Predict the structure of Calcineurin-like phosphoesterase domain-containing protein.
Amino acid sequence: MFGRSHPFQAKDAGMQRLAPTSVRTLLVSDVHLGSKHSRADEFLAFLREFHPESLYLVGDFIDGWKINTGWHWSSVCDEIIAHLIGLARRGTKIHYVAGNHDAFLRNPAFRAGCLATLPRFEVGNEFVLQTLTGWKFLITHGDLFDRVESIAPWLSKGTTAFYDTCLSMNRWCYRTWQPSEGNPYGLCSVLKDRVKRWIRFVSDFESRILHHAKQRECDGVICGHIHTPDIVSSDSMWYCNTGDWVENCTGLVERHDGRLHLVRRYDEDLFLRLPTQEETLRRCFDASKTPSTDATELVSVNGEDSSCGYAA
Ligand SMILES: [Mn+2]
């Protein structure tokens, strides 16, 4: 589906940039700017594809853990920051959710000192997004619900060092053999997927985060942290993970027609069409059904909605 002419590559290919697509909301997480493994180029190309009314940076946007152990801040990182300031000036509201790699933003004194002067820019541990169709999603990074992260941060830091080594080895292998296309971090992605599945199993990540969203009277959650993009329904709620910009290059878009669109660089896109709240209530009343996911539609880009692809 994503051939070599994918819009993310337009900048590299020297093609003319298309006008950005206007969208209601854009959500991205785990960009890890400052880490040498961050895919800053591709992320900037992706950002330029859209003009969102609201932008959510769902944690680990800046990798503060790398400040002492290998800080890589390229000119592209500056371009990304300049682009965000430009978006804010043109009216986009930017929400910055703090993650475990940029936990310094959880310090109120830091926030008050450095960020108070930025207009249309808000920092928090969590936000509630009401979609066009009326559904409420809790937006949080996710580390606060990762049992490994909260109980054994030393283990988390240890696995991060191991993971960085894997990323470096993977990049070396990719450069050595230079396959014509594919994900340069594909091997790592598979490895990390296994590790994260284990963490999900051990720490009960999804159910803990959904439980919290339910307590906040939300219908679902949008998070990042585990670098595994996904849209799944669980216990009559929606769990959406925006993925990352290290291995998967993914982001979540809420389009003006109300659909949630998970854009995936190396896999098929996913679309989630949620009915409006009124529609759901009417169905419940008509058929005495409980509010469930039966009125929703989750399709891949190759499904019947294929005409509504990425560049629509
Ligand atoms: Mn994280």
